[in-house]
Amino acid sequence: MRKSHQWVLAGLFLLALTACKPKPPQIVVEPPPMPAQAGGTWWNDRIFYEVFVRSFQDSSDGPLANDGKGDLQGLIDRLDYLNDGNPQTTDDLGITGLWLMPVAESPSYHGYDVVDYYTVEKDYGDNETFKRLIEEAHRRGIVVIVDMVINHTSSDHPWFVESARDPQSPYRDWYIWSNEKQTYQGPWGQQVWYAHGNAWYYAIFWQGMPDLNYRNPAVTAQIYDITRFWLAEMGTDGLRMDAIRHLIENGTVQENTPETHEWLRKYHQFYKDIKPYALTVGEVWTRSEDIVPYVGNELDICFEFDLAASIVQGARTNSAMILPSTVQKVNRLYPSQQYATFLSNHDQERVMSQLGGNIDKAKLAAAIYLTLPGVPFIYYGEEIGMAGTKPDENLRTPMQWNADAYAGFSTVWPWYPVNSDYATKNVAAQLADPNSLLNHYKTLIRLRSAFAALRTGQLGELMSGTRNVYAYARHGEGQNIIIVHNMDAETVREYALQERIGPIPAGTYRVYDLLGQAWAADLTVGPNGAFEGYMPFAELKPMTSYILILQKK
Length: 553
Known about the structure:
Strand order of the largest sheet: 11-10-9-5-2-1-13-12
Largest sheet: 8 strands, parallel
Number of helices: 16
Strand content: 15-25%
């Protein structure tokens, strides 16, 4: 046979092999419709990102440029990092929701003690700049919610100044005063009563944050007007309700009172009348059983603190022991998937610090909460592994963009020092590294956005045959995805996935690992969705996750 014929036959053979080889599933991201068009629980189709404006980006142009403080224009300038509005590109993070920590006028760096609810913090810009942020975010398909701090105000707020100045003032009853000294303490043993003149006022967090008195209808009317302002006039898509379980006290009972629940039921109806699709996310920092009563006709969703702690603990200790029971409890207690998942926030040690700086553990934790049900919230800088331990300022340091002076956050000394590791741990460096934590987050976000089963699919627990392999399935919209996490620090070879009864139709399936981009062993499913002894790969790598999509043969 002539050599030319040999080449032709070899080419035909390779062509035949290629034709027989199954194609990996396409990853197509369709932007979720904006809330007004989506209706229902539109938030379950989104991935949120928590931003502390003061620490995100100092603008390079305009009246607040290069002053060492992050501002709204700086955030606008960085929106393309979060989402450039083009689902065909893959260099942005893919975020579809923003939670802004307080942006109203405040004397403190953090903003959780408001002095003017109707004016944007002057360090951040003005009301018109905020509206432009909303417009630019919406243009990219990003919804925006803002912190609503209504349990208390600043002691510098004109309401409290007048309340404290004159016992006969109409504002006296806007706060909680006692003419007799009260000796009881707060829920975590803290001082809550503070002397002023011949009286004492109540402040559950500290003396600079006096609590509002919601037994006074005038206070409720004012908060209703503030809510209308932010939803209707400023154009936000929802509110993050700060410290909401402490809203109304009942003597020494200072949290989760019936009066608080009753107030929130009326508030829920009020804000839905203003904007039917508006989202409220509650900070009810307590155990799951006490959070659930807030969800539904009071708040739309709440942050799930028990689940966050279990995910981080599992990743930190390389153990899957506690996680399955926590996930089962959460999904049993809440209305279907109506809770917010996260790893850490502005009040907690950053997750990378909790994990001892271990990138593999950080990747594992990210893969767990971004493939579980719920509405995920990512704390800014978490995606690049920013570190931070108490005090609070260290949890809220400037974003690390590149290796330039001040990490690309500003051209001058910032309001608070940048973390010392910024030269090597930054966005620019990690974008260039295909194995970086940032690119891992980008992949996970893209997969969640592309596959409805990962966003809103039902959860089914799987048995793995070994204690440190945690496995479950997500089913929805004709998609069946199995997620496997080897939480062990060692390679696992002896495991076997099992499902006794489930929703997967009987048949044989090709299986593709969306995260590792590799074909796994075929899976045969029997009657009632049962299967056993399934090993997608001969071994599971240490601290590694697998997202396996099933394609029927």
